[in-house]
């Protein structure tokens, strides 16, 4: 127990990230199922409008910040040091700190579901209820009196600290901790996409931090940043939010693109087609991702010039994305395909992401977007890219790397069930949303009338959502049942080409018995030009120093929710106690003996 | 940028110490933080519904002195780092303390300025100018405060003999932070005070 609380081992932190994020994934999924149960028929009466607002807000917030980002982080943590030939990340304690801040921020957000009585609310739940993008002036104190939005803005500030700390850590790790010979253009594509993602994280998160701080001043101290009666402009919130929000969607999708760029070559027995172009198009996507935020705001009336510019930049992103898709197909072409679950999920990613990408281009056309804004068509789009894209990519990564992470193979038979039910379920759930949206069903409304003519589409969506739920339970069972089996996965069960497959499964605490010298991009493969790398020795020839654990990352992280609780309950002493914990933690951390 | 030989315990792929690289990334991130705050200030410029307005309260001669003071603290920081790098801890201690003191003078000036503005009727919630001004300059002041505490920590460590030439990189990183906060102030001074 203590060894887990104080661990600074990137592999253990990766597993902590995985299980925590998977737990939040199940919570966010349950929220989605309640939403779908409510909408299965017109005039549904299962939940109240207030509860419905909380459910869709927490579903979006949870899935984005507590499930998808940290599931990617689980792979960053576990896989990146192995892929670049390092013994750990650059700052192991900062890495532990990121995890604990993420966990505590997530718990704080979800505590709002049961914190009502503490705040004198009528009901049990005071969960955030203003949508995951929390538009002003729904969030002003005037229209949102309770602590709901306070939970959201404080929780997200805490989670931002976790993301930023991890961002600095992984940028330095990837740039600075590479094994000898591991040049930048020999990095595995997953590592490359992680690097690009972290640059987006450290540039986008400060922007939302400022937005959240301004909102905090509005709500706690009576300023008027987003309050029109004091001259403030609610549209400024949208600008700041989407300046973060659009890079954020690439923060969510680029790691998944990296994962399938590992899975497709392995199961095609072919190197990634156009490796350099795939890498550079990832960089281009990230750059362009910073220039498109106002396409979320066409209906605010930005004017024809702004609309045209943002429509143009948005459509440009289709080019590097299309380049990647053709390269993935080129990788498969003529390969010796092995249809494992990991490959199926990677193929599912390509197909589903194309559908999501096409509906994305239809949003980019500003006149069409005016018809689509705030309808279920947008909900369909976001789920094709974030579920069909990110989640299918993450599942591909789970089947691919689970043997490396735990030493146990997942069941391929259950995996096939998982894949097909997920694919059928997601199309049943999300495809009809295009139609219900085009027929005029608004998003975020807790009920609809039969005259709208969208009942059948909603029933299909609900059946699909529960199919996904069953598929996810099968996957959960797959994860749990393998834990009763012996640890017997081979070093390289899939015949992968990259360094993480050169060591035991799971890897020893020091990772590499000897730090390898990398001579090419596919070190474990025999190709026309080179022979595979010499196997690493079974045991390290000399003792390897492994840094010990530390309590201070967790203790420093603990101060932050304490500060947030003090702010929520308007008790300055508690805020100060939390701040004192943070300050003491930082000092003890800085001056404790810890050799990396 | 010549890496200091004694400060490099680990071989790194880029030849740059990992802590320093992380700090450069942090500074890049901070640019977006201050960029967002400055943008907010500019977007709301001239949109206050009631006074006091900027030209009624801002005191350019006084703030010019504060700016000069902060610039001199950057000079002191350079001298402190140079002294620590050549192992002259006597000078190193002196200049670390001078840097921190100049930072405190700046903070004192900001405190005086804020309280003066409040007396003139410009509170945090009075108008958009007040809100954007206090949040922007206050965020900067918080950064200076962190810098002063950091510098004093190094000074105390130096007094206890725990900061020497081997820790020159720590001082260098502190200096990066301090110079960055100084540069941000130059931008704020220009945008808020000089271009009204």
Description:
With 596 residues, chain A is an all-alpha fold. Chain A is 64% helix and 0% strand. Chain A has helices at 2-5, 10-38, 49-84, 92-111, 148-176, 189-221, 234-268, 275-289, 304-332, 341-364, 366-372, 376-406, 412-438, 455-482, 552-568, 572-591. The longest helix of chain A has 36 residues, at 49-84. Chain A is globular. The mean pLDDT of chain A is 95. Chain B has one domain (18-46, 59-194): Up-down Bundle (Four Helix Bundle (Hemerythrin (Met), subunit A)). Chain B is built from six helices and no strands. Chain B has helices at 18-43, 54-57, 60-85, 89-119, 128-159, 168-194. The longest helix of chain B has 32 residues, at 128-159. The two termini of chain B are 38 Å apart.
Provide a compact summary of the structure:
The complex is a heterodimer of chains A (596) and B (196). Chain A is mainly alpha-helical. Chain A has 16 helices and no strands.
Notable characteristics:
heterodimer, A: 596 residues, mainly alpha, Cytochrome C Oxidase, Chain A, globular, B: 196 residues, Four Helix Bundle (Hemerythrin (Met), subunit A), 6 helices, 0% strand
């Amino acid at each position: 127990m203590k060894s887990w609380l104080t661990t600074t081992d990137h592999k253990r932190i990766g597993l902590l990230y995985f299980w925590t994020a998977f737990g939040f994934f199940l919570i966010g999924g349950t929220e989605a199922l309640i939403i779908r149960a409510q909408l299965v028929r017109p005039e549904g009466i299962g939940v109240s409008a207030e509860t419905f607002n909380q459910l869709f807000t927490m579903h979006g917030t949870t899935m984005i910040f507590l499930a998808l980002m940290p599931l990617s982080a689980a792979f960053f943590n576990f896989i990146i040091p192995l892929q670049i030939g390092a013994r750990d990340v650059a700052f192991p304690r900062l890495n532990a700190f990121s995890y604990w801040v993420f966990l505590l921020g997530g718990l704080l957000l979800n505590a709002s579901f049961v914190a009502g009585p503490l705040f004198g609310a009528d009901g049990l739940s005071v969960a955030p209820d203003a949508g995951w993008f929390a538009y002003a002036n729904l969030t002003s104190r005037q229209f949102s009196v309770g602590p709901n939005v306070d939970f959201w803005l404080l929780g997200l500030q805490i989670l931002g600290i976790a993301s930023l700390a991890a961002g600095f850590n992984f940028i330095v790790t990837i740039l600075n901790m590479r094994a000898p010979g591991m040049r930048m253009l020999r990095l595995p594509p997953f590592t490359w996409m992680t690097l690009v993602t972290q640059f987006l994280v450290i540039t986008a998160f400060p922007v939302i931090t400022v937005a959240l701080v301004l909102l905090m001043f509005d709500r706690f101290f009576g300023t008027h940043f987003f309050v029109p009666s004091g001259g403030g402009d609610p549209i400024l919130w949208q600008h700041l939010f989407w300046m973060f929000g659009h890079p954020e969607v690439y923060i969510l999708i680029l790691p998944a693109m990296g994962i399938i760029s590992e899975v497709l070559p392995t199961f095609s027995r072919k190197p990634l087609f156009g490796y350099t172009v795939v890498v550079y198009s990832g960089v281009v996507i990230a750059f362009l991702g910073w220039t498109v935020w106002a396409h979320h705001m066409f209906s605010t009336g930005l004017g024809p010039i702004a609309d045209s510019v943002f429509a143009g930049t948005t459509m440009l992103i289709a080019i590097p994305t299309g380049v990647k898709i053709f390269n993935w197909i080129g990788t498969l072409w003529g390969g010796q395909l092995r249809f494992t679950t990991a490959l199926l999920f990677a193929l599912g990613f390509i197909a589903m992401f194309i559908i999501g990408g096409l509906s994305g281009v239809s949003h980019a056309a500003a006149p069409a977007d005016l018809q689509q804004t705030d309808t279920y068509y947008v909900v369909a789009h976001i789920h094709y890219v974030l579920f069909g894209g990110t989640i299918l990519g993450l599942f591909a990564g789970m089947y691919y790397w689970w043997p490396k992470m735990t030493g146990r193979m997942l069941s391929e038979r259950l995996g096939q069930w998982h894949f097909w039910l997920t694919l059928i379920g997601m199309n049943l759930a999300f495809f009809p949303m295009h139609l219900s949206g085009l027929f005029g069903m608004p998003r975020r409304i807790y009920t609809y009338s039969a005259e709208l003519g969208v009942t059948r589409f909603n029933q299909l969506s609900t059946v699909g959502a529960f199919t996904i739920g069953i598929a996810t339970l099968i996957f959960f069972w797959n994860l749990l049942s393998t834990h009763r089996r012996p640890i017997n996965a081979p070093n390289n069960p899939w015949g992968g080409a990259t360094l993480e497959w050169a060591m035991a499964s799971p890897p020893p605490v020091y990772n590499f018995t000897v730090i390898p010298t990398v001579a090419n991009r596919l070190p474990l493969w025999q190709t026309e030009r080179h022979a595979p790398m010499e196997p690493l020795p079974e045991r390290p020839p000399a003792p390897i120093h492994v840094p010990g654990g530390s309590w201070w990352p967790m203790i420093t992280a603990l101060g932050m929710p304490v500060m947030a609780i003090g702010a929520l309950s308007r008790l300055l002493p508690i805020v100060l106690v939390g701040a004192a914990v943070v300050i003491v933690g930082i000092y003890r951390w800085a001056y404790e003996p810890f050799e990396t | 940028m010549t890496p200091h030989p004694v400060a490099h315990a680990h071989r790194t792929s880029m030849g740059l110490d990992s802590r320093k690289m992380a700090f450069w990334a942090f500074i890049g991130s901070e640019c977006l933080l201050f960029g967002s705050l400055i943008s907010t200030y500019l977007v709301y410029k001239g949109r206050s519904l009631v006074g006091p307005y900027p030209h009624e309260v801002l005191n350019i001669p006084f703030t010019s002195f504060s700016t000069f003071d902060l610039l001199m603290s950057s000079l002191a920081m350079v001298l402190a780092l140079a002294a620590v790098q050549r192992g002259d801890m006597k000078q190193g201690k002196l200049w670390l303390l001078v840097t921190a003191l100049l930072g405190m003078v700046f903070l004192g000036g900001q405190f005086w300025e804020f309280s003066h503005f409040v007396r003139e009727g410009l509170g945090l919630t009075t108008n958009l100018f007040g809100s954007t001004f206090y949040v922007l300059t206050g965020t900067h002041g918080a950064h200076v405060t962190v810098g002063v505490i950091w510098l004093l920590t190094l000074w105390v460590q130096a007094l206890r003999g725990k900061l020497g030439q081997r820790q020159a990189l720590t001082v260098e990183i502190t200096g990066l932070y301090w110079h960055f906060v100084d540069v941000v102030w130059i931008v704020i001074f220009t945008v808020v005070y000089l271009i009204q």
